[in-house]
Amino acid sequence: MKISIEALEGRGDAYQFGLKQADRLKQTVLYNKHVRRRKKSIRRYTTDFRETKAWIEEISPDLWAELEGLSEGLGWRFEDIVHEYAGYQQSWIKSGCSALMGRGVYGRNYDYHPKTYDGRFIMYQPTSGYASVGFAQRIVGRMDGMNEKGLAVGYHFVNRISPEDGFICCSIARLILDSCASVPEAVRLLKELPHRHSFNYSLADSAGRTAVVEASAKGAVELQSDEGACTNHFRAPSKLSENRHMTKESEQRLERLVELKRGSDSANDTFNLLNKTKYGIAKKEYGNWSGTIHTAVYDTVSLNVNVGIGTDAVPVGISFADWLKGSRFIVRKLRGQIDFEDGMEHLGVQLPERSDPHGTAER
C-alpha cells in the first residue's frame, strides 16, 4: 500500500503551534482514531495531573503550552489532553526497533504496527528550549529525532512487566530533545525521570559520543559498552532479570548490526544497512507489530536528515541546518510503500500516482 506521511513545521509560540497541530489533526482520518481511542484510554490508565505538570513545566515549559494550544484547538478539556497526549502513566505494546550510532551519525528503524503510527514528521523551533526535527507519536511525543545541538535519540521496547507511574517512551524522547544538548545530559535526565515501562534509549551527539540507557520503573542504567548499536533487550548485568523470556531474535539482530557497522559509519551506508532488506535488519512483519515503517538517519554534525518510508526506500534528504537559518521547509508529504493494509486508512496517499512508489517527497 502506498502511504503518505505529513511533514509539518512550526516556529515560535508553543501555544500557537499546538493550535496549528490541532487544526491539521482535525482534517485527518487519524483524528477519528484518536476520538475512538479515548474510550479505551479512560479505562486503561489514569494520569496524575499535578505530577505530570510538575515534570513537564520543569523540563520543557513550551511542551506544556503546546498541550494547552492542542486543547483549545481540539475543543477537549485540558485534563483530557494531558491524559491522552502528555504520556504520563500509559501502557505500550511490543516493537522491534534497531539503531546504529557512531562518529556523529545516528540511524534508526521504527518497527511497529502501522495502525498506531501517527504519520507525522515535525520540525519545530520554540521560543525557549531547543529546536528539533523528528517523527511524532501521540502528536507531541517523538519516536526519534535530533535537536539543534546535534543530539539524537530513539527508543526500543524491552518489556511491559511491572509498570509504575511514569512517562512513556515517546514523551521521554521529546523531553530529551527539548532540554538536553549532549549525550551526558540526556543520560542524566533518563536517570532522573520516572519510567512507566522498560525501554532502551539509544543516543548520539555531535561530539561523537554514543550511549545506550536501559530504563524501567526500577531505574535506569547506562551500558558501559554500547558497541554503537541497540535492539530490544537489556544487556547490563543488573537489568537482565527484567528481560522478556524470548530475546533470541533481538540478540541475533544486535550481533548482525555490530557486524554490519564495521563496514562504514557514513550516513548513506547507515541508511542502507538499516533499510535495505538484503542486510537482514529491515522487516516486513507488520502483522506481528514489528515491520519497518520508517528509517531515519540523523547526521548530528551537519544536521542533515535522511528519511525513508517503508523498506528498500530511496531516502529523502532534509537540511535541518538550513531550516534553522530560516530557509522554508518545502516538503509537505513523505511518500513510500508498505506491504500491508490492515488499519492503515489514515496513511493512505491522497495524491495522484507517481512512477516511483518509494522514497518520494511532495514539495
From TrEMBL:
It comes from the Bacteria. Gene3D superfamilies: Penicillin V Acylase, Chain A. Residues 105-307 form the Peptidase C45 hydrolase domain. PANTHER family: BETA-ALANYL-DOPAMINE_CARCININE HYDROLASE (PTHR34180:SF1), PEPTIDASE C45 (PTHR34180). This is Acyl-CoA--6-aminopenicillanic acid acyl-transferase. The lineage of its organism: Bacteria, Bacillati, Bacillota, Bacilli, Bacillales.
